[in-house]
Request: fold
Amino acid sequence: MWPPTAATLRESKGEPRLLLRLLLLLLLLITGTAGRGGGLAVGALAGEPVRPDESMYGVFSMACTYRRVEVEVFVGSLRATGFGGVVQFGVDKAVDEEMRAYLAANRVTVDSLPCETIPLVTPEQRALPHGLWLGGLNQARYTHYLRWLAEHDFERVWLLDARDVIFLRNPFESAPHNLVLFAEMPTTSVWVAQRVSACFGDEISKEMMRTLRYNLCGGTVYGTSAGIAGFAREMAGVGKDMSLTGAQRRVCHVNDQPLINYLTYREGIRAPGKLRTKNLGAVELHIMFHGPALTIKTPRVCEMFTGRLRKNGNDTGDLAIVHKWNKCPAARALARSRFPTLPVDKVVGNSVSEELKFKR
Reply:
């Protein structure tokens, strides 16, 4: 019986080993030995929640040419959730002092990178060491992510866009099994298919359009350290393949959206849910409005988000991250009400309907 009663203790006088076991169990519960952070705290015995060791959690993003106002909503809303873990940005070496001071004050680790975009990949550039053959930072960032993972002992990591992400709650409340991906559209993007056709071949592009049910977002990726490392390696590898097969086409060296969708096509990911893949291991794919992150890519998603806010009195439930919030009026209004001290109205962005005129 636990906890031991007075009767139990009286009966145990003739059984010193039983009493010793009870005392050792009590000591174990108080001090705790399970897990990295030392296990149970005394507060846990009193019913208080025990916070995880967030120093093992990381949020990675690139903010190379950005000014303070362009990342303040990202950083400010994240810290407002109470998240105390690692936030790491790639920034330009020439980042201004105001930006650098703001990031330091909010405990953001910065890594100065060569942020310029190479318009065309020449044969000489292809011969450079792995990671330098890529044309744009959207593709090259995965080699930097791999380096950051190697420099710190992470358990969980988010890969996120910096300018158009807002946090509504701590994004690490849910634990990933390995790798978590998020769809942004319930169909393959024509724009992505055109890039895949130009850079990998028309037959592959047609097969993707025929079989893929969702367009995945490269701006919201979550996983364990091992899951994210595997994903980053595969993305870097696909980027290199694209740069080689895409010859001198500039469109093959700029964006990573074609890469993530080609990669999921290659790995056999065709529908939401949990599945096992050859190179990415266990993958969980969330459709829109499922899981901790949402990308407001289309007018329909914006309408649905607006309707849910009205129905639930602005309660967003377990949703932790809204990507492209600045393209939906209801999301922008929610951000303004949740974070009145952040420069929400200074974050520019076309509406989703305007953006789709240029990029579908």
Summary: The CA atoms of residues 179 and 223 lie 4 Å apart.
